Amino acid sequence: MKRRPPITFSASEYSRRAFTLIELMIAIVIILILLGLLIPAIGAVRLRAQQAQVRAEIGNLETAITAFKTDFGMDPPSGIILYEPGSASWDPRSKGLIRQLWPQYNFSLPCDINGDGDTSDTIFLNAGECLVFFLGGVYERTSDGTFRIYGFSKNPARPFLNPGHTSSDPGFDAEYSATNSGRQGPYFEFDISRFVDTDAATNPGEFAPEYLDSFPSQQVPYLYLSSYGGRGYRSGDLGTIMDDVYRQGDPASSTLGPPFKPKSFQIISPGSDYQLGEGGNYSPGKNLPGNRAVEADNITNFVSGSLQ
Ligand SMILES: [Ca+2]
Ligand SMILES: [Ca+2]
Ligand SMILES: [Ca+2]
């Protein structure tokens, strides 16, 4: 049987193998350079997808507000104080809003709006909390810190009957279960993992949640501002969150223009930088001044997309 000669490499073959190693290293470097170009591009695509998701959600919130208006004849207010019967007496403005929403509301019967087991809370709802309350209904914060929302009772005199208020709570009324009279809402499918209570320290005990948009690790909730059917946006609803609603005008001008959405409402997401900025004049064709640069990525219901 013929034996095969042992395999040997010539000098040129060795150099050919070494050259292959150099080629490999060059290929690796090229791949790294390409990755360096690609990763930011992937990041930009991901950001655009996240922005599109928030834009779509703002559209769904608008639809939910329309459904609320169909039932109650007005857009949700964006600032109100709710009084459980054991707290202070109603201020005239808040009482007027409740009378508009529920003409048969009985102000003297017990209710536990925040489902915490008593009927003595005063609940100051800010602009972001109003969005959740009027689209979500009465609520409770459970022992693990998560929020639940229950819509409103269809009992026209007692819309705030709260299924979260249980029979072991003081002042329990069988009607608190309220399922017998039916419920309306929630008007929006909130993701309970995105409820947040940013003013828990200043308003302890009311537990009213606000809602974060879907940007990962978002910290600043949606801002919702009502024009009260065209009667006008209220600076009081803005609190210290922003200086003003968005208005049509040159951002460089100190003369404030008419507001966007003058007869309905503004919804504002802080965008991926988690900052709302101060608001005021905005024009799609004009740059925001340097001190308002954080507003460029805000997403609103009056511009399709981020502001710039
Ligand atoms: Ca309560
Ligand atoms: Ca709160
Ligand atoms: Ca922003």
Structural write-up:
With 308 residues, this protein is of the alpha+beta class. It has a domain at 70-200. It has 4 helices and 13 strands. The chain has a 3-stranded antiparallel β-sheet with strand order 9-11-13. Strands 1-2 form a two-stranded antiparallel ribbon. A two-stranded antiparallel ribbon has the order 3-4. A hairpin with a 5-residue loop joins β3 (139-141) and β4. The model has no long low-confidence stretch (mean pLDDT 90). Bound molecules: calcium ion (3 copies). One calcium ion binds at residues 270-271, 273, 275, 294-295, 297-298.
Number of helices: 4
Bound molecule types: calcium ion
Whole-angstrom Rg: 28 Å
- What pattern of helices and strands is seen along the backbone? HEHEHEEEEEEEHEEEE
| Termini Cα gap | 82 Å
Number of distinct beta strands: 13
Set down the secondary structure blueprint:
Elements: H1 11-72, E1 80-83, H2 92-101, E2 122-125, H3 127-136, E3 139-141, E4 147-149, E5 152-153, E6 183-184, E7 195-196, E8 210-211, E9 223-226, H4 235-238, E10 246-248, E11 265-269, E12 280-282, E13 299-300
Parallel strand pairs: 10-12
Antiparallel strand pairs: 1-2, 3-4, 5-6, 7-8, 9-11, 11-13
Task: Give a short summary of the structure.
The protein is α+β, with helices and mostly antiparallel strands and 308 residues long. The protein is built from 4 helices and 13 strands. It is elongated and about 105 Å long.
Can you tag this structure with a few keywords?
elongated; 308 residues; alpha+beta; single chain; binds calcium ion; 3-stranded antiparallel sheet
